Amino acid sequence: MALIIGQYKKIPFEYRLSVIYLIIGALWILFSDKVAANLSENQAMLTVIQTYKGWFYVLATAVSLYFFSKLHLNRFRKAESIARENEKLKTAFIENISHELRTPMNAIVGFTEIAQTEGASQEEIKQYLGIILNSSKQLLSIVNDVMDTSLLESGNSYVNNEQVELGLLMDNVHAYFSPLMKDNVQLKLKTEGSDVAIYTDKEKLTRVFHNLVNNAIKFTHIGRIEFGYQIEKQDIVFFVKDTGVGIRSELQHTIFERFKQAEIELANRTGGTGLGLSICKEILKLLGGKMWLESESGKGASFYFSMPIEKISA
C-alpha cells in the first residue's frame, strides 16, 4: 500500500488531476443514467433530469476543483516562501563565510611573506608564526563547521559511545578557553561536586561545549561565563550561561536553524560561520538529548541541554 502511494505521488500534479477528473466523470455518467432511468420512464421528464444532472455535475466539479487547486496552491506558495527564505539565508551564509575565510587567509599569507623578508628578528618571526598558527586554527574551525554540517545533513555522522569522565572533560574545556578569555570576563566551571562517568560520544559532547562557550565569549564583553552540569533524576543537564548581550525574543525560536545565525553574524560581524548552534542541535539529536534556551535581550543567555545517560560510577 505504501509503495502504491509512493508511486502515485511521483506522478505530476496535472496528470493526477486529469485522471481523477476523467474517472469521476465516467462513474457519474454510468451510475447517474441508471438512477435517472429508474426514477422515470417519461422521455420529457428524463430530459429535465439529464439537464439538472449535467448542471449538478458542472457545479460539483467546479467547487471541488476550486478547493483542490486552492489546497495545492497554498502548499506550493508555502514551499515557495520557505525556498525564498532559505535562499536568503544561504546568501547571508555564503557572504559571511567568505568574509571569515578571507580574514585568516590574508593573515597567513601576509605574515608568511613578512617573515620571509630579510632583517626580521627571531622575536618578530616567533610573533608572526604565532599569528599564522592562530589564523590556521581559525581556518580549520571554519572547515570543521562546514564539514560537520554536511555530515549531519547527509546522515553520515555516527555516535561512538565510550566511557567519559565528565570532570576531566570539563577541566579540559576550561583549560582550553581560559587563555582566550577577555580581560573583563571570568570563566567559571560548576559541577555536582562528585565525578561522574557516563557512556556517550566524547568528541561530539566536547564539540557542543566548544561551540556554546565560543559563542558566549563572542557575545560577552563584561561579566562571566559559567558552564557545567547537574544531575536531575535520570537525566544530566548541561549548561552554558553568560552575562552577554542576550538574544531578542523574536530570534529565539529560529536561532537553532541552519544558516539563521549566519544572518545575525553578518549584521554583527562577531566572527564565525553561523552554524555552531544548528550543529549543536543536530549532535544532540544523535546523542538522544534535547536543547533549549533562556535569554533576555541585554541580560545574557543560558543554553541548556540534557541527555538521559546511564551513570556508570559516582
Automatic annotation (TrEMBL):
The chain crosses the membrane at residues 12-31, 51-68. The keyword Transcription does not apply. Gene3D superfamilies: 1.10.287.130, Histidine kinase-like ATPase, C-terminal domain (3.30.565.10). It comes from the Bacteria. PROSITE patterns: HIS_KIN. Keywords: Kinase, Membrane, Phosphoprotein, Transferase, Transmembrane, Transmembrane helix, Two-component regulatory system. It catalyses: ATP + protein L-histidine = ADP + protein N-phospho-L-histidine. GO terms for molecular function: kinase activity. Residues 96-311 form the Histidine kinase domain. Its EC number is 2.7.13.3. The keyword Ribosomal protein does not apply. This is histidine kinase. It comes from Carboxylicivirga marina. The lineage of its organism: Bacteria, Pseudomonadati, Bacteroidota, Bacteroidia, Marinilabiliales.
